[in-house]
Amino acid sequence: MVSTKFLKQLNDKYQIKFRNEKLLEEAFTHSSYANEHPNGVRDYEKLEFLGDAVLEIAVSDYLYRHYPELNEGELTRMRSNIVRTEGFSEFAIECGFQDEINLGNGEEKAGARHRKTLLEDVFEAFNGALYLDQGMKAVTHFLHLTVYPLIAKGEFDDSRDYKTDLQELLQKNGPVNIEYETISETQLPSHFVVELKINDQVKSHGEGHNKKAAEQQAAKKALQELE
Where is this region: Disordered (predicted)? Predict the structure, then answer.
């Protein structure tokens, strides 16, 4: 069963109240748990399959509407950066999914609850369940509160490698010392603040849901000033 505390959090933070809570429970049920409870709820694998497709079309729609200046290839690369699932584990933790996952005894002892790939699967399964329960409008609303703000901040747009461009610009006339230092890091939700120093002088700061994104943002700010 999904905890009452989590149901309240879904409602308070994301305005989501499932009509069919069995779907929500299924989204959080790993195959190891389902195998140990054959008369219980199904595992999340089919919902994960659906959620993957739902997320791809929701993200595609968002990019199409918000980035009219990008061509098909650029949109495709950007969408790939978003839906390749590596960041979904962080969204799953931020949304409180981690503690609700139903695991078999062996997987629980093996620490599967903290496994990124499992958390990514659960995030997709949740969106699949939400789609079945309330349709695409509810999924879009949820993504507006979780994923879309990071897209708008440019955290998934690595079509330009700002760190490399900055290095090439600065070092075209000789060696320059470039340092990226993490000065703040939180896990729930995942958030990094990075300080960029050029020849030991602070040049800019960057923020992101991971270290790479924060460094890219810091480099982008420095480049914009230099260019």
Answer: 204-227
